[in-house]
Design brief:
With about 300 residues, the chain is of the alpha/beta class. The protein is built from ten helices and ten strands. The chain has one domain (about 25-285): Ribokinase (UDP-N-acetylmuramoyl-L-alanine:D-glutamate ligase, 3-Layer(aba) Sandwich). The longest helix has 23 residues, at about 250-270.
Length: about 300
């Protein structure tokens, strides 16, 4: 069956907030990531999730960097894993993480995580056992690429968000230059999962969202976003939308659109050369206003 281009189909909109709503109504997001030298990545993802409407956000990181991550943003909670002297998240020291994850509306794993052997094993176990929806990014994708058979049997909804290098490691194929070919490559990853629970966001110029049968090309964004940390922000945005009960397809499409629009607004104000990832978070409110997403 030919892959259907759904780029022109309407984007989903978040429902208006009820006057008597509370933070529990807007979902609980768990961000799992971080390592020494990479504390900013999960912090960016956590703040992006908050700015995108998540009711509660917990950022789970190695205990060695917990204080740094906690200092970055007072509005999210932090969970320290392991001990003060080691940022390898081994399975045997993270048992409590499974209990925490089961109580979450959405889980995002990977930003700044590193690829210590024990950490990769933890990612692989979570991918195959946690039933809640999971956004898989950065080093978590690299961990899955070490055991590609896991793509055939996710425990729940999975949104994979690779850039071209991560995609090559995941698929074993070089990312195609032609848009339609890239869409088919992304869809092929989705089709490895016979349950239909896997979605791919292939990042880059004209980011592609695919589900195995359809694809959509994102039209927002600019070269100023080619800087470290912007992918972590996207992970947080998509996680927040999933936590607010969007389908993975709708969350991925709206997430890429809003993320790119925030980048466009930031570039218009600051210029592309000076753009940094935290600017995207600062311009998310303007992006939401621009598309009247809560009206």
């Amino acid at each position: 069956m030919p892959l259907e281009d759904a780029s022109q189909s309407p984007l989903h909109q978040l429902a208006p907030r009820a006057a008597n709503s509370h933070k529990g109504d807007y979902g609980r997001v768990l961000i799992i990531g971080g390592s020494r030298g990479m504390a900013g990545a999960p912090a960016l993802a956590g703040k992006a999730a908050l700015r995108s409407g998540a009711g509660l956000v917990t950022v789970a990181v190695p205990r060695a960097i917990q204080s740094s991550v906690a200092a970055w943003e007072p509005s999210y909670m932090t969970l320290g894993l392991g001990d003060e002297c080691n940022d390898e998240l081994r399975l045997e020291i993270c048992n409590g993480l499974f209990v925490t994850a089961k109580n979450m509306s959405a889980i995002a794993i990977g930003p700044g995580l590193g690829l210590a052997p024990g950490t990769a094993s933890l990612v692989q176990t979570l991918y195959g056992s946690i039933e809640g929806p999971m956004i898989v990014d950065a080093d978590a994708l690299n961990a899955i690429s070490q055991r590609p058979e896991l793509l055939q049997s996710p425990a729940g909804w999975r949104i994979l968000t690779p850039h071209p290098g991560e995609f090559q490691r995941l698929s074993g194929a070089t990312c195609a230059e032609h848009l339609a070919e890239r869409a088919e490559q992304a869809a092929a990853i989705c089709r490895r999962d016979p349950t239909g629970k896997t979605f791919v966001v292939l990042k880059g110029h004209q980011t592609i969202v695919a589900d195995g049968q359809h694809y959509a090309v994102n039209a927002t964004g600019n070269p100023g976003m080619a800087t470290g940390g912007t992918g972590d922000c996207l992970t947080g945005v998509i996680a927040a939308f999933v936590a607010q009960r969007m389908t993975p397809w709708d969350a991925a499409r709206l997430g890429t659109h809003v993320h790119g629009l925030a980048g466009d607004l930031a570039a218009a104000a600051l210029g592309q050369v000076s753009l940094v990832a935290s600017d995207l978070i600062d311009y998310l409110p303007a992006a939401f206003k621009a598309i009247a997403i809560t009206k």
